[in-house]
Amino acid sequence: MLIDLAGMAQQINLSKADSLSKIYVKKGRFHKAIPYLKILTADSNRKFESAEMRRRAFYDLYRADSADNDWFRASSDLKNFQALKDSAFNVTASAQLKEMTVKYETEKKDRSIARLIDEAKLRETELAKDRLLLNTLVGGALLLSLLSAVIYNRYRLRQHNNQILQQLNDHQKQLISDKQLLVRETHHRAKKDLELVLNLLNMQAATLNDEFSLNAFTDISSRIRAISLVHQKLYHDKVEMTSINMGDYVNELVGFLQNSISFDKRIQIHFELDPIELEVTQCLPVGLILNEALTNSFKYAFPASHKGSSCIVIRLRKEQDEFIQLLVADNGKGLALDSDAARRDSLGLQLIETLTAQLEGSLEMKNDPGVSLLIRFPRKRPTFISSADPEKADDSISEKV
Questions:
Q1: Pairing assessment for the beta strands 372-378 and 323-330 based on DSSP bridges
Q2: Are strands 243-245 and 277-279 parallel, antiparallel or unpaired?
């Protein structure tokens, strides 16, 4: 018990010596600090003080002896300080090395355990993949067999259906060919019938002496000829027989009128025709309108007393909004239609108005200096064979003709 008390007393004394030495060293009073520093560096007090306290005491003593110019003792103090410092470093380094070794071994063992676990998982995964591959192969083989059976069955079924479709297509082609032949024959017979009617009218006209009746027969003949020309074009020029090239049709119609009416050679005809094809239901009204307008111009626009040039303009153009513009104009003397009653009494004008309405178009007529007829109507797209359409068009104007 006494020894312990003595040790505690010694530690207290060393602590006081350490505090006083720090104060004197800090103030630069090294000669005051040397006695306390010698107490702290004495070998007898090694066991009562910490290594840090002893190392710092030797360093402060080195500084004090150096300030006192006692270089021999200062060198000894520095060596002792360095030895304690190296010893402390070695102890720390050894402890750190041991700690690092323990950590390394622990990590190495953990890595080894983790690697073993990963290898076990990898083996389990490979086994699962092998099982899945085996099951997939077996299932794929079964599915391939089933799919092959289905494909073969579908192939046989499609082959059978293709044979049926080919038979139906051949039958349909034959029906279409037969229908085209019938339609062509219908147009041919219609043309022949109309030519027969024309011949009968010409024979009857040959027996007439009345100029008014003769003119009436001539007008009817030209109208029938305009209709007959449509059937002729359909019979000769078209395979589908749904539309007519209006440029060719207008030229042929004008040529017929020039040959059938007393045509004044002074009259010049200017064509402004766009490449337009019209459906049959529109071609017939347009042909009859041209027939009425040109017949009027040929007969009445340019009397013998007319002076200057004699000109007729025929224009057929396609506008951007899918409308067709038909213009027939001359620079003749014009029409004497000063009243609505006079207009109503004009059969040709009534026919033109009726045909314009049939085209769902608009009619604009000017009478100065000559006659100008401007008709705008929407264009219909040609459809597949419809042999009844020309007949319907003929029926719709039969009463006016």
A1: antiparallel
A2: antiparallel
Range of the domain at 388: 208-397
Sign of the Cα pseudo-torsion (107, 113, 117, 120, in order): positive
**Strand partners of residue 316:** 273, 326
| Strands 310-318 and 362-366, bridge-based pairing | unpaired
- Domain count for the chain, please give it: 2
The CB density around residue 115, as the number of other CB atoms within 10 Å, is 10
| Whole-prediction pTM | 0.50
DSSP 391: H
| Helices 2-27 and 51-67, axial angle in degrees (round to 10) | 40
Residue-wise pLDDT tens digits, 380-397: 876 544 443 444 444 444
Tell me whether residue 359 is in a domain.
Answer: yes
* CA dihedral of residues 214, 220, 222, 227 (deg, nearest 10): -160
Q: What is the DSSP letter of 365?
A: E
Interstrand relation of 243-245 and 310-318 (parallel, antiparallel or unpaired): unpaired
From 84, 105, 126, the end of a domain falls on: 105
From 105, 120, 148, the end of a domain falls on: 105
User: Is residue 222, in this structure, part of any structural domain at all?
Assistant: yes
Which residues sit opposite 183 in a β-bridge? none
What is the tens place of the pLDDT at every residue in 211-244? Answer: 777 677 677 777 787 777 777 777 665 555 677 8
Q: Which residues contact 392 (CB under 8 A, 6 or more apart)?
A: 281
User: Which burial class, exposed, middle or buried, applies to 351 when counting CB atoms under 10 A from its CB (0-12, 13-18, 19+)?
Assistant: buried
Count of C-beta atoms within a 10 Å radius of residue 57: 30
230 and 86 together in one domain: no
CATH number of the CATH domain containing 339: 3.30.565.10
Q: How far apart are CA 75 and CA 62, in angstroms?
A: 7
Give the CATH number of the domain where residue 70 resides.
Answer: 1.25.40
Is residue 124 included in any domain, yes or no?
no
